[in-house]
Amino acid sequence: MQYPHRLNRDGSIDAICPRCYATIAECLSESDLIREETNHMCDPARLEYYEEERRRAMKKGPEGTGVTLRDPSSLAGGGVSRR
Ligand SMILES: [Zn+2]
Q1: Given a cut of 80, is residue 31 above it in pLDDT?
Q2: What local confidence, expressed as pLDDT, does residue 15 receive?
Q3: Cα of 10 from ligand 1 centre, angstroms
Q4: Is residue 82 part of a domain?
């Protein structure tokens, strides 16, 4: 698996797991990172948590926008300036 690396200001490199979003390792050399990456096992609890969050966000998305984006001022204005 390919892990994205993040270069820190102090010169160390973080490897982030794209599946469980955990910082796998913080090392000063790429070879150390690769060793940590190969040892990494995703925490099933974390995976489940992020999977649930993703599902909830997808479910909420289209439904929520229809309700929450309704402008309350248009309702009030309509009441005052009625033809
Ligand atoms: Zn992981």
Answers
A1: yes
A2: 95
A3: 24
A4: no
Strand partners, 13: 7, 27
Tell me, in angstroms, the distance from the centre of ligand 1 to residue 11's CA.
23
pLDDT band at 60 (very low <50, low <70, confident <90, very high): confident
How many angstroms is it from 42 CA to the middle of ligand 1? Answer: 3
Confirm whether 34 is domain-assigned: yes
For residue 11, give its domain range.
Answer: 5-63
Element (H, E) at 13: strand 13-16
Q: Which residues surround ligand 1, an ion (CB under 5 A)?
A: 17, 19-20, 42
Residue 25's DSSP bridge partners are: 15
How much distance in Å is there from the Cα of 70 to the middle of ligand 1? Answer: 40
Its sign, for the CA torsion 23, 45, 2, 21, is negative
Number of domains composing the chain: 1
pTM: 0.60
78 domain residue, yes or no? no
* pLDDT above 90 (res 55): yes
